[in-house]
């Protein structure tokens, strides 16, 4: 559950401009204050997470919405790298993709995805999906607020 002490930082890794626009619109109307940051591919996502290059002064995201089918380094590779990194692995990663492949679903959970959601093709259903993500991850779930002081 969000405690209101800070705005929620969301990193959306998505190369489809229409999906980005819809997600932005739904989250702009959210009850919870959030900052949505968008990158278009896996390399940019990792630069953002490691605070490299153009992303040197960004805040660490509280939640990652990750598409699997990205140009260059795809979402599958990004998930593995995030969940194998001690500094990043606590960040919840929600896979938001068109892939309905059982192999993808199995592998993403095997690599510690926090949720796997298939994007609906229908516009209204897509809005409902994003609203559901917002309701659950930004209103109900308690997200970690940085690293604990004892390092655990």
Give a short summary of the structure.
The chain has 152 residues and is α/β, with parallel strands linked by helices. Helix content is 38%, strand content 16%. The protein has 5 helices and 5 strands, in the order βαβαβαβαβα.
Explain what this protein looks like in three dimensions.
- With 152 residues, the chain is of the alpha/beta class.
- The chain has a single domain, classed as Rossmann fold.
- Helix 1 packs across helix 5 (123-140) and helix 2 runs parallel beside helix 3.
- It has 5 helices and 5 strands, in the order βαβαβαβαβα.
- A 5-stranded parallel beta sheet has the order 2-1-3-4-5, sandwiched between helices.
Low-confidence stretches: 147-152
Termini separation comes to: 21 Å
Number of strands: 5
Q: Compute the CA-based radius of gyration.
A: 15 Å
Q: Count the domains.
A: 1
Helical coverage, percent range: 25-40%
* Series of H and E elements: EHEHEHEHEH
Shape: globular
Strand content: 15-25%
Mean pLDDT: 88
Please report the number of helical segments: 5
Under CATH, the topology can be stated as Rossmann fold
CATH architecture type: 3-Layer(aba) Sandwich
| CATH class descriptor name | Alpha Beta
**Strand order within the widest sheet?**
2-1-3-4-5
CATH superfamily: Response regulator
Biggest beta-sheet profile: 5 strands, parallel
Q: Which class best fits the helix and strand makeup?
A: alpha/beta
């Amino acid at each position: 559950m969000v405690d209101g002490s800070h705005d929620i930082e969301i990193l959306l890794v998505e190369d489809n401009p229409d999906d980005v626009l819809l997600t932005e619109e739904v989250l702009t109307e959210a009850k919870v204050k959030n900052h949505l940051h968008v990158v278009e591919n896996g390399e940019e996502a990792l630069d953002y997470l490691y605070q490299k290059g153009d992303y040197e002064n960004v805040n660490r995201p509280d939640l990652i919405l990750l598409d699997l089918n990205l140009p260059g380094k795809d979402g599958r590779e990004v998930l593995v790298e995030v969940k194998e990194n001690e500094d990043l692995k606590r960040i919840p990663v929600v896979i938001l993709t068109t892939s309905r492949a059982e192999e993808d679903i199995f592998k993403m959970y095997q690599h510690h995805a926090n949720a796997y959601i298939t994007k609906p093709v229908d516009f209204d259903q897509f809005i409902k999906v994003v609203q559901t993500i917002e309701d659950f991850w930004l209103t109900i779930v308690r997200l970690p607020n940085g690293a604990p002081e004892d390092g655990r």
